[in-house]
Amino acid sequence: MPGFPALVGRSIFRSSSHALRSTHLTTGVAAAPPLLHRFGSRRALIIQTLSGPVRIERLSDSDSGIIELKLDRPEAKNAIGKEMLRGLQNAIETIGNDSSANVVVVSSSVPKVFCAGADLKERKLMSASEVQQFVNSLRSTFSSLEELSVPTVAVIEGAALGGGLEMALSCDLRVCGEQSTFSLPETGLAIIPGAGGTQRLPRIVGRSAAKELIFTGRRISGKEAVSMGLVNYCVPAGEAHHKALEIARDINQKGPLAIRMAKQAINKGLEVDMPSALDAEEECYEQLLDTQDRLEGLAAFAEKRKPRYLGK
Protein backbone atom coordinates (compact mmCIF):
# COMPACT_ATOMS: atom_id res chain seq x y z
CA MET A 1 0.00 0.00 0.00
CA PRO A 2 1.41 3.44 -0.91
CA GLY A 3 2.85 5.27 2.05
CA PHE A 4 3.48 2.11 4.05
CA PRO A 5 6.46 0.45 2.36
CA ALA A 6 8.03 -0.82 5.58
CA LEU A 7 4.98 -2.69 6.81
CA VAL A 8 3.85 -6.03 5.47
CA GLY A 9 0.92 -7.31 7.52
CA ARG A 10 -2.55 -6.28 6.46
CA SER A 11 -6.09 -6.84 7.60
CA ILE A 12 -9.50 -5.38 6.94
CA PHE A 13 -12.09 -4.11 9.39
CA ARG A 14 -15.73 -4.49 8.38
CA SER A 15 -19.00 -3.38 9.92
CA SER A 16 -22.31 -4.51 8.48
CA SER A 17 -24.24 -1.59 9.96
CA HIS A 18 -21.83 1.22 9.15
CA ALA A 19 -19.63 -0.35 6.46
CA LEU A 20 -16.65 0.81 8.45
CA ARG A 21 -13.42 -0.57 7.09
CA SER A 22 -9.86 -0.14 8.29
CA THR A 23 -6.51 -1.37 7.10
CA HIS A 24 -4.41 -2.73 9.98
CA LEU A 25 -0.71 -2.68 9.18
CA THR A 26 1.99 -4.30 11.26
CA THR A 27 5.47 -5.70 10.97
CA GLY A 28 4.31 -9.23 11.69
CA VAL A 29 3.08 -12.00 9.44
CA ALA A 30 1.38 -14.59 11.66
CA ALA A 31 -2.41 -14.46 11.65
CA ALA A 32 -4.47 -14.29 14.84
CA PRO A 33 -8.20 -14.91 15.37
CA PRO A 34 -10.56 -12.08 14.36
CA LEU A 35 -11.35 -9.55 17.07
CA LEU A 36 -14.36 -7.29 17.35
CA HIS A 37 -13.30 -3.73 18.12
CA ARG A 38 -15.58 -0.81 18.91
CA PHE A 39 -14.84 2.68 17.56
CA GLY A 40 -17.12 5.00 19.50
CA SER A 41 -20.60 3.73 18.67
CA ARG A 42 -19.28 1.70 15.72
CA ARG A 43 -18.18 -1.91 15.66
CA ALA A 44 -15.46 -3.27 13.42
CA LEU A 45 -14.14 -6.76 12.85
CA ILE A 46 -10.34 -6.94 12.92
CA ILE A 47 -8.42 -9.81 11.43
CA GLN A 48 -5.24 -9.19 13.39
CA THR A 49 -1.71 -10.16 12.52
CA LEU A 50 0.83 -10.74 15.27
CA SER A 51 3.51 -8.08 15.33
CA GLY A 52 6.20 -6.39 17.32
CA PRO A 53 5.53 -3.97 20.14
CA VAL A 54 4.25 -1.14 17.90
CA ARG A 55 1.31 -1.40 15.48
CA ILE A 56 -0.35 0.92 13.01
CA GLU A 57 -4.05 0.79 12.17
CA ARG A 58 -5.63 2.95 9.46
CA LEU A 59 -9.35 3.67 9.59
CA SER A 60 -11.32 4.20 6.41
CA ASP A 61 -14.68 5.27 4.99
CA SER A 62 -15.87 8.27 7.01
CA ASP A 63 -12.85 7.86 9.29
CA SER A 64 -10.31 7.75 6.47
CA GLY A 65 -7.37 9.91 7.49
CA ILE A 66 -7.31 8.74 11.11
CA ILE A 67 -4.32 6.57 11.98
CA GLU A 68 -3.86 4.71 15.25
CA LEU A 69 -0.38 4.01 16.62
CA LYS A 70 -0.67 1.34 19.30
CA LEU A 71 1.86 0.20 21.88
CA ASP A 72 1.68 -3.53 22.52
CA ARG A 73 4.31 -5.01 24.84
CA PRO A 74 2.17 -6.45 27.64
CA GLU A 75 4.91 -8.55 29.23
CA ALA A 76 6.82 -5.35 30.13
CA LYS A 77 3.95 -2.87 30.54
CA ASN A 78 5.03 -1.21 27.29
CA ALA A 79 8.47 -0.40 28.71
CA ILE A 80 10.63 1.06 25.96
CA GLY A 81 13.55 -1.16 25.00
CA LYS A 82 15.55 -1.33 21.82
CA GLU A 83 12.91 -3.27 19.89
CA MET A 84 10.09 -0.91 20.84
CA LEU A 85 12.27 2.09 20.04
CA ARG A 86 12.86 0.71 16.54
CA GLY A 87 9.14 0.08 16.20
CA LEU A 88 8.34 3.65 17.18
CA GLN A 89 10.89 5.02 14.72
CA ASN A 90 9.50 2.94 11.88
CA ALA A 91 5.90 3.82 12.70
CA ILE A 92 6.58 7.56 12.94
CA GLU A 93 8.53 7.52 9.67
CA THR A 94 5.72 5.61 7.97
CA ILE A 95 3.07 8.03 9.16
CA GLY A 96 5.21 11.00 8.18
CA ASN A 97 5.43 9.65 4.63
CA ASP A 98 1.69 9.05 4.33
CA SER A 99 0.04 12.04 2.67
CA SER A 100 -3.42 10.64 3.46
CA ALA A 101 -2.88 10.94 7.23
CA ASN A 102 -4.88 13.73 8.88
CA VAL A 103 -4.64 12.86 12.59
CA VAL A 104 -2.83 10.25 14.70
CA VAL A 105 -4.16 8.60 17.88
CA VAL A 106 -1.40 7.16 20.09
CA SER A 107 -2.68 4.53 22.52
CA SER A 108 -1.88 1.30 24.35
CA SER A 109 -3.28 -2.16 23.72
CA VAL A 110 -2.22 -3.17 27.24
CA PRO A 111 -4.90 -2.72 29.94
CA LYS A 112 -4.21 -0.25 32.75
CA VAL A 113 -0.95 1.06 31.34
CA PHE A 114 0.06 3.55 28.67
CA CYS A 115 3.81 3.13 29.00
CA ALA A 116 5.92 2.32 32.06
CA GLY A 117 8.93 4.23 30.71
CA ALA A 118 12.35 2.85 29.84
CA ASP A 119 13.07 -0.85 30.10
CA LEU A 120 15.31 -0.75 33.18
CA LYS A 121 16.12 -4.46 33.00
CA GLU A 122 17.59 -3.89 29.56
CA ARG A 123 19.18 -0.62 30.70
CA LYS A 124 21.03 -2.41 33.50
CA LEU A 125 22.97 -4.42 30.91
CA MET A 126 24.11 -1.34 28.97
CA SER A 127 27.38 0.51 29.31
CA ALA A 128 27.32 4.25 30.00
CA SER A 129 27.98 5.01 26.34
CA GLU A 130 25.19 2.64 25.25
CA VAL A 131 22.79 4.35 27.66
CA GLN A 132 23.73 7.74 26.25
CA GLN A 133 23.21 6.53 22.69
CA PHE A 134 19.84 4.99 23.56
CA VAL A 135 18.56 8.09 25.38
CA ASN A 136 19.72 10.36 22.56
CA SER A 137 17.90 8.16 20.06
CA LEU A 138 14.75 8.14 22.21
CA ARG A 139 14.87 11.94 22.50
CA SER A 140 15.20 12.24 18.73
CA THR A 141 12.34 9.80 18.20
CA PHE A 142 9.99 11.80 20.42
CA SER A 143 11.03 14.97 18.58
CA SER A 144 10.07 13.24 15.32
CA LEU A 145 6.68 12.40 16.84
CA GLU A 146 6.25 16.01 17.91
CA GLU A 147 7.27 17.25 14.45
CA LEU A 148 4.71 15.21 12.51
CA SER A 149 2.80 17.67 10.35
CA VAL A 150 -0.58 16.33 11.51
CA PRO A 151 -2.13 16.52 14.99
CA THR A 152 -1.39 13.72 17.45
CA VAL A 153 -3.63 12.68 20.35
CA ALA A 154 -2.28 10.54 23.19
CA VAL A 155 -4.73 8.22 24.96
CA ILE A 156 -3.67 7.44 28.54
CA GLU A 157 -5.45 4.75 30.54
CA GLY A 158 -3.36 3.76 33.55
CA ALA A 159 0.30 4.58 34.10
CA ALA A 160 2.34 7.01 32.01
CA LEU A 161 5.71 7.04 33.73
CA GLY A 162 9.12 8.41 32.78
CA GLY A 163 9.62 7.94 29.07
CA GLY A 164 5.95 7.04 28.76
CA LEU A 165 4.95 10.48 29.98
CA GLU A 166 7.63 12.03 27.78
CA MET A 167 6.03 10.30 24.79
CA ALA A 168 2.62 11.70 25.73
CA LEU A 169 4.14 15.18 26.15
CA SER A 170 5.41 14.91 22.57
CA CYS A 171 1.82 14.66 21.32
CA ASP A 172 -0.31 17.72 20.60
CA LEU A 173 -3.24 16.66 22.78
CA ARG A 174 -3.67 14.26 25.67
CA VAL A 175 -6.80 12.48 26.94
CA CYS A 176 -6.74 10.32 30.07
CA GLY A 177 -8.99 8.13 32.14
CA GLU A 178 -9.56 9.34 35.69
CA GLN A 179 -7.65 6.37 37.14
CA SER A 180 -4.50 7.24 35.17
CA THR A 181 -1.28 8.17 36.93
CA PHE A 182 1.58 10.34 35.73
CA SER A 183 5.14 10.70 36.95
CA LEU A 184 8.68 11.61 35.95
CA PRO A 185 10.53 9.54 38.60
CA GLU A 186 14.04 9.81 37.14
CA THR A 187 15.58 11.86 39.96
CA GLY A 188 14.87 8.91 42.25
CA LEU A 189 17.24 6.92 40.05
CA ALA A 190 19.89 9.66 40.23
CA ILE A 191 19.25 10.81 36.64
CA ILE A 192 16.94 13.35 34.99
CA PRO A 193 14.22 12.98 32.36
CA GLY A 194 16.32 12.72 29.21
CA ALA A 195 13.83 12.34 26.35
CA GLY A 196 12.42 15.85 26.42
CA GLY A 197 10.68 15.86 29.80
CA THR A 198 12.67 18.74 31.30
CA GLN A 199 11.76 20.91 28.32
CA ARG A 200 8.24 19.93 27.27
CA LEU A 201 6.70 19.65 30.75
CA PRO A 202 7.41 23.28 31.76
CA ARG A 203 6.15 24.48 28.39
CA ILE A 204 2.85 22.72 29.07
CA VAL A 205 2.25 23.15 32.82
CA GLY A 206 4.57 26.06 33.63
CA ARG A 207 8.03 26.28 35.16
CA SER A 208 7.16 26.00 38.85
CA ALA A 209 4.77 23.05 38.51
CA ALA A 210 7.22 21.22 36.26
CA LYS A 211 10.07 21.70 38.71
CA GLU A 212 8.00 20.35 41.58
CA LEU A 213 7.01 17.23 39.62
CA ILE A 214 10.55 16.56 38.40
CA PHE A 215 12.33 17.37 41.68
CA THR A 216 10.01 15.15 43.75
CA GLY A 217 9.12 12.54 41.13
CA ARG A 218 5.68 12.27 42.71
CA ARG A 219 2.76 10.64 40.93
CA ILE A 220 -0.32 12.65 40.09
CA SER A 221 -3.81 11.48 39.19
CA GLY A 222 -5.76 12.14 36.04
CA LYS A 223 -7.87 14.74 37.81
CA GLU A 224 -4.80 16.62 39.01
CA ALA A 225 -3.26 16.31 35.55
CA VAL A 226 -6.22 18.02 33.90
CA SER A 227 -6.36 20.70 36.59
CA MET A 228 -2.76 21.75 35.84
CA GLY A 229 -3.19 21.51 32.07
CA LEU A 230 -1.04 18.41 31.61
CA VAL A 231 -3.93 16.72 29.78
CA ASN A 232 -6.77 18.26 27.79
CA TYR A 233 -9.49 15.93 29.06
CA CYS A 234 -9.91 13.55 32.00
CA VAL A 235 -12.85 11.20 31.48
CA PRO A 236 -14.23 8.19 33.37
CA ALA A 237 -11.90 5.18 33.34
CA GLY A 238 -12.14 3.21 30.12
CA GLU A 239 -13.56 6.10 28.08
CA ALA A 240 -10.36 7.90 27.06
CA HIS A 241 -10.06 6.11 23.72
CA HIS A 242 -13.66 6.96 22.85
CA LYS A 243 -13.04 10.63 23.68
CA ALA A 244 -9.81 10.69 21.67
CA LEU A 245 -11.57 9.25 18.63
CA GLU A 246 -14.30 11.86 19.04
CA ILE A 247 -11.62 14.57 18.92
CA ALA A 248 -9.86 12.87 16.00
CA ARG A 249 -13.10 12.69 14.02
CA ASP A 250 -13.76 16.36 14.67
CA ILE A 251 -10.28 17.26 13.41
CA ASN A 252 -10.66 14.88 10.45
CA GLN A 253 -13.67 16.84 9.17
CA LYS A 254 -11.70 20.07 8.88
CA GLY A 255 -9.57 21.15 5.95
CA PRO A 256 -6.47 18.91 6.18
CA LEU A 257 -4.10 21.52 4.75
CA ALA A 258 -5.49 24.10 7.16
CA ILE A 259 -4.91 21.78 10.12
CA ARG A 260 -1.30 21.24 9.07
CA MET A 261 -0.71 24.95 8.63
CA ALA A 262 -2.37 25.73 11.98
CA LYS A 263 -0.04 23.28 13.74
CA GLN A 264 2.97 24.71 11.94
CA ALA A 265 2.03 28.30 12.75
CA ILE A 266 1.49 27.54 16.45
CA ASN A 267 4.68 25.53 16.84
CA LYS A 268 6.88 27.99 14.96
CA GLY A 269 5.34 30.98 16.72
CA LEU A 270 6.07 29.64 20.18
CA GLU A 271 9.79 29.54 19.41
CA VAL A 272 10.20 33.21 18.45
CA ASP A 273 9.15 36.72 19.47
CA MET A 274 5.66 38.01 18.65
CA PRO A 275 6.51 39.94 15.44
CA SER A 276 8.31 36.89 14.06
CA ALA A 277 5.44 34.67 15.19
CA LEU A 278 2.94 36.82 13.31
CA ASP A 279 5.15 36.59 10.23
CA ALA A 280 5.02 32.80 10.57
CA GLU A 281 1.23 32.95 10.78
CA GLU A 282 1.11 35.10 7.64
CA GLU A 283 3.30 32.65 5.73
CA CYS A 284 1.11 29.72 6.73
CA TYR A 285 -2.08 31.58 5.82
CA GLU A 286 -0.71 32.51 2.41
CA GLN A 287 -0.08 28.86 1.61
CA LEU A 288 -3.83 28.22 1.86
CA LEU A 289 -5.08 31.04 -0.36
CA ASP A 290 -4.81 29.21 -3.67
CA THR A 291 -6.06 25.82 -2.50
CA GLN A 292 -9.13 24.01 -3.78
CA ASP A 293 -10.15 23.32 -0.20
CA ARG A 294 -10.46 27.03 0.61
CA LEU A 295 -12.85 27.52 -2.31
CA GLU A 296 -14.75 24.38 -1.33
CA GLY A 297 -15.19 25.71 2.20
CA LEU A 298 -16.71 28.94 0.91
CA ALA A 299 -18.95 27.08 -1.53
CA ALA A 300 -20.17 24.67 1.15
CA PHE A 301 -20.96 27.57 3.48
CA ALA A 302 -22.95 29.35 0.76
CA GLU A 303 -24.81 26.17 -0.19
CA LYS A 304 -25.44 25.19 3.45
CA ARG A 305 -23.84 21.75 3.14
CA LYS A 306 -20.88 19.91 4.60
CA PRO A 307 -17.63 20.62 2.78
CA ARG A 308 -15.85 17.83 0.91
CA TYR A 309 -12.18 18.55 1.45
CA LEU A 310 -9.56 16.79 -0.69
CA GLY A 311 -6.38 18.17 0.82
CA LYS A 312 -5.62 20.14 -2.34
Give keywords:
single chain, 312 residues, 2-enoyl-CoA Hydratase, Chain A, domain 1, seven-stranded mixed sheet, 11 helices, 13 strands, disordered N terminus
Mean pLDDT across all amino acids: 86
**Rg:** 20 Å
Shape verdict: globular
Q: Could you give the order of the helices and strands?
A: EEEEEHEEHHEEHEEHHEHEHHHH
The first-to-last residue Cα distance is 21 Å
Q: β content, as a range?
A: 15-25%
CATH topology of the largest domain: 2-enoyl-CoA Hydratase, Chain A, domain 1
The CATH H-level superfamily of the largest domain is 2-enoyl-CoA Hydratase, Chain A, domain 1
Largest sheet: 7 strands, mixed
Count helical runs: 11
Strand order of the largest sheet: 1-4-5-6-8-10-13
Given the helix and strand composition, which structural class is it?
alpha/beta
Structural domain count: 2
Counting DSSP E segments of at least 2 residues, the number of strands comes to 13
Tell me the CATH architecture of the largest domain. Answer: Alpha-Beta Complex
GO molecular function, one term: hydro-lyase activity
InterPro entries: ClpP/crotonase-like_dom_sf, Enoyl-CoA_hyd/isom_CS, Enoyl-CoA_hydra/iso, Enoyl-CoA_hydra_C
Family: Belongs to the enoyl-CoA hydratase/isomerase family.
Organism: Musa acuminata subsp. malaccensis
What features would you describe in this structure?
This protein has 312 residues and is α/β, with parallel strands linked by helices. It folds into two domains: 22-252, 2-enoyl-CoA Hydratase, Chain A, domain 1 (Alpha-Beta Complex); 256-303, Lyase 2-enoyl-coa Hydratase, Chain  A, domain 2 (Orthogonal Bundle), CATH 1.10.12.10. Helix content is 39%, strand content 20%. The chain has eleven helices and 13 strands. It has helices spanning 82-96, 120-123, 128-146, 163-169, 197-205, 207-216, 222-227, 240-252, 256-269, 274-286, 292-303; strands spanning 22-25, 31-39, 42-49, 54-59, 66-71, 103-108, 113-115, 152-156, 159-161, 173-177, 181-183, 220-221, 233-235. The protein is globular and about 60 Å long. The protein starts with 21 loop residues before the first strand and ends in a 9-residue tail after the last helix.
